[in-house]
Design brief:
Elements (H helix, E strand, L loop, with lengths): L42 H14 L5 E2 L2 H6 L14 E4 L3 H14 L3 E4 L16 E4 L6 E5 L4 E4 L5 H10 L2 E2 L12 H7 L6 H4 L6 E7 L5 E5 L11 H5 L8 E8 L1 E2 L3 E9 L2 H11 L8 E5 L1 H10 L10 E9 L2 H17 L4 E4 L3 H12 L1 H7 L3 E8 L5 H15 L2 E7 L4 E8 L4 H17 L18 H4 L2 H14 L19
Parallel strand pairs: 2-4, 3-4
Antiparallel strand pairs: 1-2, 5-6, 6-10, 7-11, 8-9, 8-10, 12-14, 12-15, 13-14, 13-17, 16-18, 17-18
Helix pairs in contact: 1-3, 8-10, 13-14
The structure holds flavin-adenine dinucleotide.
Length: about 500
């Protein structure tokens, strides 16, 4: 299954043409361009590659049909359409090795792709060439309750992994809201997080070992199957979050934990954003570590109300979804009550505790689809996922609302506020494109100024590449560039991602 945003229209670039951006590069043009990107491969190089691939793969693994290629030209970002010249659907690690070896021989770029739900344009083949789809490598190889590990192929849908381990009493905590449509390989490549990261952390601490095919086509295994492993540099940690630029992940060994015995969920409403953001900082003072503390501001709430009338109280100007877990209902409820008490002290209007699974779903479901709800609410949306220290959330939001007024664009904010990770969505029409770009640039600068970061989970990909110098000093950017060059001397794997194309000295 491939997730592709229905609002995006693919733009065809002829094979062998030099890469030029499509016209709907929301969020990219004006901030950074494609100068400095390697050129698209020539038609002759593409044809030679196709023939070589035909010699080692089945016909059904190689896609050249223009309509089928369109699906792989976009993802869930607002970056526009970049059609590949070929799509290869790998079925084994050997297939991946073949693809990279052949690509190096013919100088054709390769862009790995899981299920295309990325929001930073990481899976877009900017310079054409091959999209290497891992969607068919989706086996759950092993769940081992004694070692508390799972071994999986990268194309497995994250939600399927979660259900399978829960069936045997174990738990895989990282829960990106896209879990039903994204792949575990994409999660590892992006170091994905989710609501539960507040208590359990993001993807990286759950990755014990990886099988990886390096950009040169060399297959390696890094990490271990054990919880402790300190022999040598942490190459597993380096590959996690490298967004398909340093290697193609073909097998993953994951750490599991015991499944919590009980979960309690509450919807806490506040009259405004300020009251909610104060509560966020104070809950932890009560000695409780909730498993989620999700926040929705009044703009995000309005979008939900328009879609699900009556679901959320009309007097609420902001809300939190508070969830605790523990070995028993008593323990989980005790924690929930203590956290709710703090919220009440901070002026919460109401605390509604879910009484059963159906009520829990009713609380979570609009939050899970909020990204899509906001996409439908405006002609264009740029979605950011900055992080600020928890104590800076109130200041951050005040400054964002001022920006929104100054630039005359709508900004809706929601997210994993318990860990300071906020999804700031700039919503605009064609006439406000430049104002939206200005707003986004200012949001990034404010996040870094408040000692936060430009991305908490979606990654840098293409869309946030221009902002990397805000938080990385030139020597740090240069070091990252040298690292990439060491592993990928020909710039074959996912060129044009993460590092800015201009303004970095070697
Ligand atoms: C509705 C919605 C909600 C979302 N909520 C969250 C959220 O809560 N938290 C969060 O972190 N993200 C979220 N995302 C973003 C996205 O789902 C994640 O980034 C996810 O990890 C991407 O997985 P994918 O399989 O779709 O990867 P893709 O989009 O296909 O690829 C993403 C990146 O990973 C690389 N990649 C993919 N597979 C491999 C591989 N096997 N080897 C090497 N590189 C690879 C690609 O080159 C690309 O750079 C959301 C997206 C949507 C649409």
């Amino acid at each position: 299954m491939q997730a592709s945003d229905p609002k995006k229209t693919a733009t065809h670039l002829p094979q062998g043409s030099s890469a030029s951006p499509s016209t709907d590069l929301n969020g990219l043009d004006g901030l950074d361009g494609l100068d400095g990107l390697r050129p698209r491969p020539s038609a002759a190089a593409v044809e030679a590659t196709r023939r070589a691939l035909n010699g080692v793969l089945k016909d059904t693994q190689i896609v050249t049909d223009a309509d089928a290629l369109e699906v792989y030209a976009t993802d869930w970002s607002s970056a526009g359409a970049f059609p590949p010249d070929l799509v290869v659907k790998a079925e084994s690690t050997s297939d991946v090795v073949h693809v990279l070896q052949i690509a190096n021989t013919h100088g054709v770029p390769v862009t790995p792709r899981g299920l295309g739900t990325g929001k930073a344009g990481g899976a877009l083949p900017l310079a054409g060439g091959i999209v290497l789809s891992l969607e068919r490598m989706s086996r759950l190889i092993e769940i081992n309750p004694a070692d508390m590990v799972a071994v999986v192929e990268p194309g497995l849908i994250t939600g399927d992994l979660m259900s399978a381990v829960e069936d045997v009493g174990l738990f895989y905590p990282p829960d990106p809201n896209s879990f039903a449509i994204c792949s575990i390989g994409g999660n590892v490549a992006c170091n994905a997080g989710g609501p539960r990261a507040l208590k359990y952390g993001v993807t990286r601490p759950y990755v014990l070992g990886l099988q990886v095919v390096l950009p040169t086509g060399e297959r390696i295994e890094v990490g271990a199957r054990t919880l402790k492993h300190v022999a040598g540099y942490d190459l597993t940690g380096l590959i996690v979050g490298s967004e398909g630029t340093l290697g193609v992940i073909t097998e993953i060994t994951l750490r599991l934990v015991p499944k919590p015995g009980a979960v309690e969920t509450a919807l806490v409403t506040f009259k405004d954003t300020h009251a909610a953001s104060l509560a966020i900082t104070r809950v932890f003072g009560a000695g409780v570590l909730p498993r989620t503390l999700e926040f929705l501001d009044h703009h995000a709430l309005s979008a939900i109300r328009a879609k699900t009338p009556g679901r959320f109280p009309e007097n609420a100007g902001a809300l939190l979804i508070l969830e605790t877990d523990g070995p028993s209902h008593e323990r989980a409820f005790e924690d929930l009550s203590r956290a709710a008490e703090v919220c009440s002290d901070q002026g919460a209007l109401d605390v509604l505790v879910a009484q059963d699974e159906m009520q829990r779903t009713r609380i979570w479901e609009p939050r899970r689809v909020l990204s899509m709800t906001l996409t439908e609410s405006a002609p264009h949306k740029i979605s950011e996922d900055i992080v600020v220290p928890r104590s800076a959330i109130a200041t951050f939001l005040e400054r964002v609302y001022a920006l929104s007024t100054d630039n005359d664009v709508r900004v809706a904010t929601y997210g994993h506020a318990g860990d300071g990770n906020l999804h700031v969505n700039v919503l605009f029409d064609d006439a406000h494109k430049q104002a939206a770009d200005r707003t986004v640039a200012a949001i990034m600068a404010i996040a870094v100024e408040l000692r936060g970061t430009i991305s908490g989970e979606h990654g840098v990909g293409l869309l946030k590449r221009a902002f990397m110098p805000l938080e990385h000093a030139p020597p740090v950017l240069a070091l990252q560039r040298r690292l990439k060059k060491t592993l990928d001397p020909q710039d074959i794997l996912n060129p044009g991602k993460i590092l800015p194309l201009r303004g970095v000295t070697e």
